[in-house]
Amino acid sequence: MTQLDVRPQVGDTVSGVAEGDVRGKGLGKGSVGLVGSAVIGISTVAPVYCLTSTLGSTAGEVGMQMPAIFLAGFLPMLLVAFAYRELNKAMPDCGTSFTWTVKAFGPRIGWMCGWGLVIATIIVLSNLAGVATSYFWLLAGEITNNPSIAALDDNKLVHIGTCLTLIALATAISYRGMTATKGVQYALVGLQLAVLAIFVAMAFQKASAGTFDTGLDFSWSWMNPFAVESMAAFTAGLSLSIFMYWGWDACLATNEETTGSAKTPGRASLIAMVVLVGSYLATGIAAQMAVGSGDAGLGLANPETSDNVFAALAGPVMGPMLGILLFVAVLASAAASLQTTFIPVARTVLAMSTYEALPPSYAKVHPKFKTPGRATVMAGVATGVFYTVMTLVSENVLTDTIFALGLMICFYYSLTAFACAWYFRGELRRSARDLFFKGVFPVLGGLLLATVFFKTLIDMWNPSYGSGSTVLGVGSVFVIGVGLLALGLVIMFVTERRSPAFFRGEVLTKATPALVVED
C-alpha cells in the first residue's frame, strides 16, 4: 500500500503532516474542486428537506425565537468546523473523524468515533430514502391530480419497493465516482436553492401584503436566544437545529480526491456552513412573517402541518403552479442528499479497512472509477435492509431510531473537536491563531455538543420522548441510542480479536504534530 503524499507545497505552512503511517487509498485524486466540494457539503445536509421537516417542530418548541435557535445551532457546528479544517491540514485522510481521533486518543476511542459516524449515516440514509419515496408519490399525485396515486405511498410493499429502487440508484451513482456525483449534484442543489429563493421572496411579498391573518411583523427580538421560555424548550430546539446542519463534513470525506487536499475541503466546509445558515435564517424569518409561528391556521407550529411545512405552504404562498416546484425541490433535496451521504460512510469504512480496523475486503478501490466500490455497495445494502426491517417491524421503532440520531451526531462531532485540541496541544502557545483555532474554538464546540449529548440522554429516558413507546419502562429512544453505541463496542471487541495489530497501535499510531515545516 503506497503512502499518502503529504509533502508541503511551495508557500504552504504545514504542521505535522508527515505521518508515516497515514496511507493513501487509491482514490481518484483531483476529482473535486472548491465549488464541487462545497456543493457536496450543502447537498448532504439537504437544506430544503431539513426546513420542511423541522421548521414547524422548532417553532413549536421555541415560538418566535426560531431564527435565534438557528443561529445557536450554527455556533457549535462552526466551532467544530474549525477543528475539522485544522486536522485536515495536518492529515488529509478520507477517514476524517476516525483517523484523527485514533491519532489523538488511540485506536479504541477512534474506532468508536468511526462507528458513530457510520451508524448515524446509515440511519440518515434510510430516513432520506423514505422521505424521497413519500415525496415521489406525493408529487406524482399532484402532477396527475389523482389522490389515489399519492395514496400508493401508504401501501407498504409499494413504499418499500420504491425506497429500495431509490437506494439502488443512489448507490450506483456513488459507485461510479466523484465525476458522476458532481454532475448530478450541481443540478439538484441548484434547483433546490433556486426554488427556496423563490419561496422566500414570495413569502416576504405575502407578509408585506398582510395576506394571512396569522402573519407577524419582523422584530429583532426574534434573534435573541435568551428569550426562549424554558431551558427544556431551548435544548429541544437546539437539538433540532444541530440536526439541520449535520452533513457538512462530507466535504472533508472527499479530501483525498480534492484539488489542494490540505486546504480546499476546509474552505469548502466553511462556505457550505455560510450558505446553510443564510438559507435557514432567510426562510425562517420569511415564513414566520408570512404565517406566524403559532398553532392556528397556517401557523408553523400547527400540529397538523408542522411535520411537513412546505406541503402546507406551497399552494398558499406560491400558488398552485409554482407550488409544485416546492414539492420538486423537497424531492430533489432528499434525493441529492441520499446520493452524497454515501460518500462519508463509504470512505470511513474504506479508511477503517485500510488501517486494519475492519475486514480487508472493504479496502478495495474500483480500478476504473477510483471509488471504494465494495464499501459503497455495503452501505447501500445495509441501508436497504435497515429500512425494510424497521418499516416491517414497527413505524414507532423507525421513528425512534431517527430520534436517536442526534445522540450519534453529537457523539462523533464532539470527539473530533476534542481530538483537535489534544492533537495540537503542543502548538497552542505558538501563536494566538493556533490557540484559538486549534484549541479554544474546538474545545468550546466539543463542550456544547457534549452538553447536548448528555442532556439528550437524560431526556431520552422519559418514555414520552419520540413515539412514546417503552422497553421495561424506559423510553425506546434511549434503548435504541444506547443500544447502537453498545453494539459498536461489541463489534469492536470482536474485531480486536481478529485484527489485534490495529488495536495495539501498530498500524495507525497516536502522535503529536511535528515541528512546523516552511517552504
Automatic annotation (TrEMBL):
Matches recorded under Pfam families: AA_permease_2
Taxonomic superkingdom: Bacteria
Gene Ontology annotations for the cellular component aspect, listed alphabetically: plasma membrane
Coiled coil feature spans: none
Ranges annotated as spanning the membrane: 32-56, 62-84, 113-137, 157-175, 187-205, 225-248, 268-289, 309-332, 373-390, 402-424, 436-458, 470-494
Predominant location: membrane
Compartment(s) of residence: Cell membrane
Family matches, as InterPro entries: AA/rel_permease1 (IPR002293), APC_superfamily (IPR050367)
UniProt keyword terms in alphabetical order: Cell membrane, Membrane, Transmembrane, Transmembrane helix
Topology with respect to the bilayer: Multi-pass membrane protein
Xref: Gene3D superfamilies: Amino acid/polyamine transporter I
GO molecular function, one term: transmembrane transporter activity
Protein name: Amino acid transporter
